[in-house]
Amino acid sequence: MIYIGCHLSVTDGYEAMGKTMRRFGGNTFAWFTRNPRGGRTKPVVQEDVDALRLHLEKEGFGPLVAHGSYTMNLCSAKEETRANGLDMLTQDLERMELLPGNYYNFHPGAHTGQGTETGMEQIASALNQVMKPGMKTTVLLETMAGKGSEIGGTFEELREIISRIECKDRIGVCFDTCHTWDAGYDIVSDLDGVLQHFDDVIGLSKLKAVHFNDSKNGCGSHKDRHEKLGQGCIGMEAMKRIALHPSLQGLPFILETPNDDEGYMKEIHTVLGWDRE
Ligand code: FE
Ligand code: FE
Ligand code: ZN
User: Does the pLDDT value for residue 111 go beyond 70?
Assistant: First the structure.
């Protein structure tokens, strides 16, 4: 079986997200830990978080996949941006501990001219400063499209960062289907081969979540423009094969497709339909 859901707004609190996703028909979800421009966050109300935890258990939800801010860049050439990123990461991971056992996914970063090696070192060093033994949250590095100076466009770069992380049992990967395809991995005609390569390079045990998106562009385009399921270059048949692939069973699948509420409900329904066939 798979867990399926989409991004929700945290504006009305945590329990509200659980209830919204139940209404959508899904059994996992994602949210941005702060507004996309990286501003301040509202304080978390303990009772609200506890109510969500109860709801998740009662409704049989899978693990949740929080998303760090797009503005967080742990390997920017600008020291101020790096310091800012470290602050966001620290606060986000503290908050995640209120909801133990879930995932915190983020974009590894863009080295903005410093080079991949320096970038990977800065990302690993930031994570090692903030990740603590005994933490209940698993941090996920997202596979990226490899646009600009983005790090994480190859499995090898993700492996390199992971190899430098001290809390080995708390680091994993979130596989974004649009990004991976845009990065040049052909998940349409060679899904088995791509997943085998992932296993050889990183290990499938590290694959903890999927961002389930079609892509507006071709394999290797390095663009990162998401599309609705079945309306992009990956296509519905390939999306279905991904959702049903034996190596990905039991993982949370998060839709980040350009949709309104109704569109998300439809896609959730489609995916659950495949699962029941
Ligand atoms: Fe992302
Ligand atoms: Fe994504
Ligand atoms: Zn994307």
Answer: yes
SS3 4: strand
Question: Which residues does 123 contact at the CB level (< 8 Å), separation at least 6?
Answer: 74, 75, 108, 109, 151, 161
Identify which ligand lies nearest to the alpha carbon of 145.
Answer: 3
Which CATH number fits the domain that encloses residue 217?
A: 3.20.20.150
Quote the CA–CA distance of 252 and 66 in Å, as a whole number.
11
37-51, 173-187, 241-255: which has the minimum mean pLDDT? Answer: 37-51
Closest CA to 128 of 93, 174, 96: 93
- Two structure tokens written together for 29: 């979800």
Q: Report the number of secondary-structure helices (H) and strands (E) in the chain.
A: 9, 12
What's the 142 CA to ligand 2 centre distance in angstroms?
A: 7
For ligand 2, an ion, list residues with CB under 5 A.
176, 211, 256
pLDDT of residue 140 exceeding 90, the answer is yes
Rounded to whole angstroms, the Cα distance separating 27 from 4 reads 6
- Please report the pLDDT score of residue 36 as a whole number: 63
This prediction's pTM: 0.97
User: Domains in the chain: how many in total?
Assistant: 1
Residues 197, 192: Cα–Cα separation, whole Å: 9
Q: How far is the CA of 106 from the centre of ligand 1 (A)?
A: 6
Q: Can you give the residue range of the structural domain that contains 121?
A: 3-276
Other residues' Cβ atoms within 10 Å of the Cβ of residue 269: 13
Which tens digit of pLDDT belongs to each residue from 170-182? 999 999 999 999 9
From its phi and psi, is residue 13 left (phi > 0), alpha (psi between -120 and 50) or beta? left
